[in-house]
Amino acid sequence: MGVTYFFLYVPIIALVGMSFNASESPFTWNGFSTKWYGVLANDSTVMKGLTNTLIVAFTSTFLATILGTALAVGLHQYTKSAFLNAFALAPAIMPDIVLGIGLLALFALLSMTLGLYSVVIAHVVFSMAFVSAVVKARLSNSDPALREASMDLGATRSTTFFKITLPSLTPAIVAGALLAFTLSLDEFVIAFFTNGPATPTLPIIIYSMVRFGVTPEINALASLLMLVSFTAVIGAQRMTKLAEAR
Amino acid sequence: MPKRQHAKRRLLAVGSIMVGLLLLSACSSGTKSDSASDTLNPKADLKKQSLVVSNWDAYMPADLPAKFEALTGSKVTVTHHATNEEIMAKLTAGGDSGIDVAFVSGQFAQALAAQGLLEPIHPELMPNLKNLYPEATKLAYDVGNKYSVPYSWGTTGICYRKDLTGFDPTSWNDILNPIAKLKGKVTALATERWLMLPAQKLLGYSVNTTSETEMAKVKDTLIAAKKNLLAYDDTTFYTRLVSGEAAMTVAWDGWCNYGITDNKNIKFVIPKEGSDLWVDTMVILKTSKNKEAAHAFINYVLDAKVQSWVIENILYKVPNKAAMDLVAAKLGATYPNILMTPADLLKGEGIVDLGAAGPMYTKIATEITASK
Amino acid sequence: MKAGRSVNKRRDLLERLTLQGPGLVYLLLFMAVPICLILIYSIFQRGQFGGVVFHATTDNFTRALDPVYRGVLFDSLKIASITTVLALALGYPTAYGIARLPKRFRTTALLLIVMPFWTNFLIRTYSWIMLLNSEGLLNKALLKLNIIHTPLDLLYTQSAVILGLLYGYLPLMILPLYASIEKLDPEIREAASNLGANRFRTFLDVTLPLTISGVLAGSIFVFIPSLGNFIVPELLGGGKTVMVGNLVRDQFLKARDWPFGSVLALVVILFVFVLFAIQSKVEKRISGGAHAN
User: Is the pLDDT of residue C99 over 70?
Assistant: First the structure.
């Protein structure tokens, strides 16, 4: 088990370390410096990319969570069909290059001008599948008697859904949403094909920067990304703990 | 509902989707725009127009768009593409890509024009065209610069570390069949046309050959050469030279200058068998709604002062006589290949689009890169 | 009562439509239709300079049978399989270890697994290049310690590609594995050992079958992205290892041959579906058996 953690973190440690390298080349060490973080803060292209990525991630996660949760509950309650269940899961196992190109072809056919919204549309497709997979897994372990009891007591289907089913699914919904958010943040291939030229997302910008070789600025960016996500997750965890305690 | 009816319904649904899509795609392809150009208004108010320009990263000075905006009031957004192929995919996918001006290599501009995707250049809106060398108006992929305006040009050769090789390479064979101590320390270019070039020239063929027998020999040469290769690299090969990971690389002349900046032992040579003439151009998309601003932008780039600043910034040669006259001599001391004259450059063979033979090159490239 | 039942049925249908409808329609529009488009393009031809010309032909399918493409497909399957097996070998013990940690440490341990995912995939891949290349940190360290005398050629090989894929997708193996291991009732294992089974037999006959859904899910989550990845072969493989993802991308971007690219994409989709079908069947069989026991 220790081997795994070592394996996972060796490049991360190297990456974070090199972000403090005063020299621009990764092959020479010129002393400790935090200047690259300053360069990063002033790099408007990167900042714009970060903003675009966050917009896409939040919007697509929001939509995907709603659609995916509803789909999972609907399928669990009403459908035994293997086909529909596989259909709901298909985007998660579809190779991203196929999905990306297919969507580009569709958008081109409809003469849509690409922009951030087309990336959101694309991201919802696979995010939705992950959310519904996580929620479904939780549902298959849940007790159907709760719902039956609620309806026997006279509650309507929608009351049951919102007051009984959803609350019991909260951890799964949160987990699914987190997963969707994480995937959208770092998603490159689909965004690459479905994005408009004026609104690049961060992975796309990094792709065009990194092809020149890795500068400490890029390492600084990666380190910051990790830090921000970590803080966000810890924050979300704390908040759920507080909510549960109440 | 019984299973069989389920399956039937599904099949029917899928079938009708496909038929619908078929009709839709057939219809929309019929609406490809005609090649007649619009009449443009020379007095158009540029403040009302904005531009999206797609270029390679760091291929023009970072504040050039801002200066253009300060001059004309037209806002410029820059987006990057890492390779010609990427931008081609976006521009040829159909519909409006949202891009007004794109920087693409000559043979790709040719392909775009052949598909009716480019706005013809209106010379009356580009007085600075007069700054170009006469040779730059007769380039094979677009004679007379009807659809494109050349931005930079150069050739391909061997970029190497003299201190690591111990000698000056003179032939493409020096890099395709390196001496023992240099095996595993050479890189080749990954983009198809330039992947093939060293072998094509070594064997005495044209870089635009569509002969299957000739390309078969090219393929065999390059499959053998792969065994000595460190990697196929289009973008980071000069950092490999600087770090010492590689000793010789196939490189474009301008790129090699970046290496020379970092390490004075790096030199550039054009092998004796000859090489190509590549040109990077600026094109205006027919779907652009800001054609006047697009013309003004290109015209701005062609200004002698502006483009001389481009040369100093990106270390490439440009086909702009007025600009070269201002700075070439000074830069030439450090970067000898900037001193190449148009006559020198024209000794290289101009690269043109291969038309229907394109997929053959892709297949051969796959066979080479996938070989063991 | 009859009237009550049909009202119930209508309400059921309404709930079913409201819940399933939006999601299914969305997927139909933005997943099924694009895939159908690709299917359609595969029977047409590339225009002279690119684009699609609507003359039907089966040429693309015969071209796809060429040995060079079969070779690439075989290599891709091989590389993806090795990556998956390695991910399983590393991931199972790790997931098991985390599941056995005291509850309060488990979330942190899991977060630590996932955190590398929160940097950028490209940058992480490049970090390996920085570490492994002949002038990189690892070689420099080994040379300094006199363990080796000439730098090791670690990069731009098939092994480097496997390493890069393993690194990129290992967390996707660990998470589902953890989910199914965590649900295990430790008492079952105790019961088995009380009945005289040794640790190995317990694992094989009890633990593994009960966690097979995690194993299969994790395997699919690693195998499929590995199969279609084109960035790792390009960067860590130095462009010298061509996988199926590179092929598809090359056809669409370099050759501008959308019809042929669509055929290749189709092959990939077919493989994915076949694998998925196998996975579901295997899972039903094994977990059905485990539950029966």
Answer: yes
Closest CA to B91 of C253, A169, A133: C253
pLDDT value at position B149?
96
Domain ranges of chain C: 84-292
The string of pLDDT tens digits covering residues B215-264 is 999 999 999 999 999 999 887 788 888 888 899 999 999 889 988 888 88
Out of C40, C133, C250, the one facing B245 most closely (by C-beta) is C133
Assess if residue A144 is contained within a domain. yes
**Cβ of residue B289 closer than 8 Å to a chain A Cβ:** no
The helix/strand/coil state of B268 is strand
Residue written as tokens 């040109």?
A: B279
A29-43, C10-24, C275-289: range with lowest mean pLDDT: C275-289
Residue with tokens 């329609």: C25
Please indicate whether, in this complex, the C-beta atoms of B231 and C46 are within 8 angstroms of each other: no
Mutate to test the interface with C, among A8, A162, A181 (most CBs of C within 10 A): A8
- Answer yes or no: are the C-beta atoms of C23 and A67 closer than 8 Å: yes
Query: Do residues A128 and A91 make contact, with C-beta atoms less than 8 angstroms apart?
Result: yes
Length of chain B in terms of residues written: 372
Please give the residue range of the domain that contains residue A76: 44-217
**Backbone dihedral region of A210: left (phi > 0), alpha (psi from -120 to 50 degrees) or beta?**
alpha
* Shortest CA gap C191–chain A (Å): 23
Contact by Cβ (8 Å): B155, B201: no
Q: Quick one: pLDDT band at residue B32, thresholds 50, 70, 90?
A: very low
Overall number of domains in chain A: 1
Give the phi and the psi of residue A32 in degrees, each rounded to 5. Answer: -85, 135
Residues C98, C108 contacting (CB under 8 angstroms): no
Whether A203 and C120 lie within 8 Å, measured CB to CB = yes
**Residue A233 is assigned to a structural domain of this protein:** no
- Which regions of chain A are under pLDDT 70? 24-28, 211-214, 236, 240, 243-246
CATH 3.30.70.260, domain B156-274+353-369, yes or no: no
- Write down the pLDDT at residue A244: 61
Provide the chain C residues 137-196 that lie in CB contact (below 8 A) with chain A: 137, 167, 170-171, 174, 179, 183
Class of domain C84-292 (CATH, top level): mainly alpha
Q: Which amino acid is it at C107? A: T
DSSP A174-197: HHHHHHHHHHHHT--HHHHHH--T
Inter-residue contact C243 to C72 (CB < 8 Å): yes
Q: Rounded to the nearest 5 degrees, what angle is found at the Cα of C220, between the Cα atoms of C218 and C225?
A: 110
CATH assignment of the domain containing A198: 1.10.3720.10
Task: List chain B domain ranges.
Answer: 46-153+278-340, 156-274+353-369
Q: How confident is the model at residue B34 (pLDDT cuts 50, 70, 90)?
A: very low
The strand ranges marked E within C91-245 are none
Residue among C129, C286, C127 nearest C211 (CA): C286
Just give the CATH number of B46-153+278-340: 3.40.190.10
A130 in any annotated domain? yes
Residue of B nearest to A189 (CA): B86
Angle between helical axes of C67-100 and C212-228 (0-180°, round to 10) = 140
Q: What ipTM was estimated for this complex? A: 0.82
Question: Rounded distance, CA C215 to CA C223, Å?
Answer: 12
Q: Is residue A50 part of a domain?
A: yes
For chain B, list residues whose CB is within 8 angstroms of any CB belonging to chain C.
14, 17-18, 21-22, 25-26, 29, 83, 85-86, 88-89, 92, 110-112, 114-115, 184, 190, 192, 226, 229-233, 243-245, 353, 355-356, 358-359, 361-363, 365-367, 369-370
Neighbours of chain A (3+ CB pairs under 8 A): B, C
Chain A contacts to B (CB-CB under 8 A): 25, 27, 81, 83, 104-105, 107-115, 192-193, 196-198, 200, 205, 207-209, 211-213
